Task: inverse folding
């Protein structure tokens, strides 16, 4: 059984430690934990590993956040993975810092990366792991906030929630699905 785990973010060193790149950060830690490395491929950086009879395909799109749907759709089709086996890891300003929420479907909630995935796939019926990054910004400053680096105090506290997010990814793949 194959699974596509997509971490959303923006490419480039200037975005590496921004709130918007939490999806990349989670997948980087998961790859490190499993002893695999990302390779640049069509529309993103990819790697894979097997665990308990399941194949995990990790993808970090290189299309920038607002065009993530292209990468998601390409790998779902090319790897012949059903949408039920897709999990998108994404930042969420509606959740307090480090709060995690796994949902089997739902709205984009104003997130442009999720909006594009929904537009390209034609559905909201795919799982997403939302990673809270807080909402400590002034009116009209949302983009500046999510594209700014985590402050040192948040970086110092991020290891545990990233580890929890990895556990949730394993749960998503390994737990029996409800019929």
Result:
């Amino acid at each position: 059984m194959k699974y596509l785990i997509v971490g959303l973010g923006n490419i480039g060193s200037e975005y590496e430690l921004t709130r918007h790149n939490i999806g990349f950060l989670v997948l980087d830690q998961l790859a490190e934990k499993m002893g695999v490395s990302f390779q640049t491929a069509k529309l993103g950086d990819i790697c894979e590993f097997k665990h308990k009879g399941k194949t995990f395909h990790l993808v970090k799109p290189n299309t920038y956040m607002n065009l993530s749907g292209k990468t998601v759709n390409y790998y779902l089709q090319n790897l012949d993975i059903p949408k039920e086996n897709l999990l998108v890891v994404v930042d969420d300003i509606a959740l307090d810092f480090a709060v995690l929420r796994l949902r089997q479907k739902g709205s984009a909630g104003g997130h442009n990366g999720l909006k594009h995935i929904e537009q390209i796939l034609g559905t909201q019926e795919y799982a997403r792991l939302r990673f809270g990054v807080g909402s400590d910004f002034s009116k009209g400053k949302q983009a500046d906030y999510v594209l700014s680096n985590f402050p040192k105090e948040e970086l110092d506290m991020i290891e545990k929630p990233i580890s929890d997010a990895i556990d949730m990814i394993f749960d998503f793949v390994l737990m029996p699905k409800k019929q």
